[in-house]
């Protein structure tokens, strides 16, 4: 592992100059440069101080990077047909509740609705793929047809309704809620 290069990368991520890092660690800019270029090795105390200023821990610094999953094949997706409730749920990214966004494909049967959602700090994006849906957001209603998009703060009670006699399908993407 090239510690100096990794420290430099972390410093750049934190948007600090060598001079700013030097000031915060009581080191010289030249010494920071030598560490980053692998020409000097800091003492353990100095290294730990640099990590603290850069906002990380030794365990996180030395942790091997994990490969980020990018492709989610159809075979790994989960689908629930809630026939008696009038909708089908499809999660294209099964562990999305661990991420910043949670995508969902929702199929609403004719004259069906999807549950009421309590207010949260989430942002919600809905894209109408097929048919028409109505968003009930607090006291307001918004009608979206195929190709229309809805985007809102989920800070009011809300739900989706299909008020037509044809099936509707939407993609929903919700951000993580930090209430």
UniProtKB/TrEMBL annotation:
Protein's name in the database: Transcriptional regulator
CC terms in the record's Gene Ontology section: cytosol
Residue span, HTH cro/C1-type domain: 7-61
Pfam families (alphabetical): Cupin_2, HTH_3
Domain of life: Bacteria
Keywords noted in UniProt: DNA-binding
Ranges annotated as spanning the membrane: none
Organism for this UniProt entry: Staphylococcus caeli
Cross-referenced PANTHER family: HTH-TYPE TRANSCRIPTIONAL REGULATOR, TRANSCRIPTIONAL REGULATOR
InterPro entries, sorted: Cro/C1-type_HTH, Cupin_2, Lambda_DNA-bd_dom_sf, RmlC-like_jellyroll, RmlC_Cupin_sf, TransReg_Diox_bact_type
Single GO molecular function: DNA-binding transcription factor activity
Signal sequence annotation: none
């Amino acid at each position: 592992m090239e510690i100096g290069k990794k420290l430099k990368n972390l410093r750049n991520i934190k948007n600090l100059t060598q001079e700013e890092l030097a000031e915060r660690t009581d080191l010289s800019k030249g010494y920071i440069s030598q560490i980053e270029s692998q020409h000097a090795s800091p003492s353990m105390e100095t290294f730990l101080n640099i990590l603290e200023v850069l906002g990380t821990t030794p365990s996180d610094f030395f942790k091997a990077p994990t490969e980020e999953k990018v492709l989610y094949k159809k075979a790994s997706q989960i689908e629930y047909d809630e026939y008696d409730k009038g909708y089908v749920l499809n999660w294209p990214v099964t562990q999305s509740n661990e991420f910043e966004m949670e995508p969902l494909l929702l199929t609403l049967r004719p004259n069906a609705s999807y549950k009421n959602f309590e207010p949260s700090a989430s942002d919600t994006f809905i894209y109408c793929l097929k048919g028409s849906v109505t968003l009930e957001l607090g006291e307001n209603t918004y009608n979206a047809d195929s190709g229309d998009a809805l985007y809102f703060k989920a800070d009011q009670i809300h739900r989706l309704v299909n008020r037509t006699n044809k099936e509707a399908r939407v993609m929903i993407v919700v951000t993580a809620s930090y209430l």
